[in-house]
Amino acid sequence: MGYQQMSATAGCFTVIVDLALMTDLDAFTEAVDQLSGTDPSSCADAESIERLWRDHARFEAFLTEATAAFDVSGNWVADGARNAAAWLVKRCRLPKSQAKRMLRRGRELRHLPVVAKAWAHGTITAAQVDVITPFRGPSTDEALARDEELLTEQAGFLTYKDFVRAAAYWKQMADPDGAEADDERRRSRRDVYLESSFGGMWLGRIILDPISGSIVSSELERLEQEMFDADWAQAKASLGRDPTLADLVRTPGQRRSDALVEMATRSRMAPSGALRPAALFSVLVDYPTLRDRVCELADGTVLAPGSLLPWLTEGLLERVVFAPGRRCEVSATARFFTGATRRAIELRDRECTHPYCDIPADKCQADHIVPVIEGGLTIEENGQMLCGFHNRLKIPRPPPDG
Question: How far apart are the first and last CA of the chain?
Fold first, then answer.
């Protein structure tokens, strides 16, 4: 009797199955049974978690292609289903949207062999696949065939957010006219409704294009932060100690609601003909920017350049030139980054520079890479954005007394 050893996940367990007596699915089910019977904390180390998610991607890739093959086979017809999606909804209890999405992925993968192979190897996930598959179309098919390997390689080493940004730029370069049309369609989808509901409560929904959403969101966050600071100060004064979030009088959702009301109240209070605030567009200028096509919001949302045109008559343009040794608003020996020097670092880094953090730069602290006490200068090249947590984390703690 021949046995073959299958190592399902490093650091977790080893399954010994008789492959001569079992089908592939039987072996898989046995491995899952064995895994389910183990203590999940035995796989709580970093290596095992990374391996589990990679194997999860591999299985999801196989399941997607198997489901697509099921669709083509027509084996769902015998049960009287109208299509494979309806069969999946009934037999596998999937939401209709998920069933359709899986079948659509499977169909697209037949035309993207490099993407399919990378997913099967676990180097990319369904999320990255869903970024690439919409690029198939008459205007981009030729470019996608040429650059499929490049896109897949980037998907395998960039974070998801960075890959979405890179892929959006690829789409602009491959189909500039289509990118402008896509942005116009996004703007045309803007919609807001607010209606009185049962018991006098109000229900609503907001859909905004990237620029409009950024304007509304930034002001809402600013007011919410003001209210959070007030709630914190009130709780601290009442308790005589630093409060916890549970001690605050309002939840985050309640503060956002109050902030929205405050926005409307301030709008009503503004006198007719008052100076209208102007949107600020930050343009980062360096050689690659001048050479290539770069247009995105501070939060990383990629825009087609044409989407800025409606705002140019009422917005402000901020020009920041990154040139080593060429600009420094404050003394290079100053203790803190301020003014345009800090702003330049914010625009360059966009977010906390710690690899496991994505706190926006405007909520971070400007930190010296080489500390001032070690001779570090207060210049752009020696600055980095770190959130409060990661800035404190890099400061060595003093040894305990005794």
Answer: 66
Pairing assessment for the beta strands 316-321 and 280-285 based on DSSP bridges: parallel
Query: Which CATH topology does 324-402 take?
Result: DNA Binding (I), subunit A (1.10.30)
Please state the domain extents for the chain. 1-42, 45-174, 208-267, 280-321, 324-402
Please check whether residue 194 is in contact with residue 186, taking contact to mean a CB–CB distance below 8 angstroms: no
Give the single-character DSSP code of 292: S
DSSP string, 292-348: S---B-TT--B--GGGGGGGTTT-EEEEEE--TTT--SS-TT-SS--HHHHHHHHHH
DSSP run (H or E) holding 36? helix 24-36
pLDDT digits (tens, 9 = 90+) for 81-108: 999 999 999 999 999 999 999 999 999 9
Can you point out the beta strands (E) in 224-338? Answer: 280-285, 316-321
The pLDDT of 305-319, averaged and rounded, is 65
Backbone dihedral angles phi then psi of residue 292, each to the nearest 5 degrees: -105, -175
pLDDT band, residue 269 (cuts 50/70/90): confident
- Number of residues in the chain: 402
Amino acid in the structure at residue 228: F
C-beta of residue 165 within 8 angstroms of C-beta of residue 296: yes
Give me the chain's average pLDDT, please.
Answer: 84
Q: Cα separation of 300 and 303, whole Å? A: 9
Task: Yes or no: say if 179 and 172 are a contact pair by the CB < 8 Å rule.
Answer: yes
Do 342 and 361 contact (CB within 8 A), yes or no? no
* pLDDT (tens digit per residue) in 156-194: 999 999 999 899 889 888 888 887 888 888 889 999 999
**Does residue 398 register a pLDDT over 80?**
no
**Per residue in 43-63, pLDDT tens?**
999 999 999 999 999 999 999
| Owner of token pair 């625009």 | 347
Q: How many helices (H) and strands (E) does the chain have?
A: 14, 8
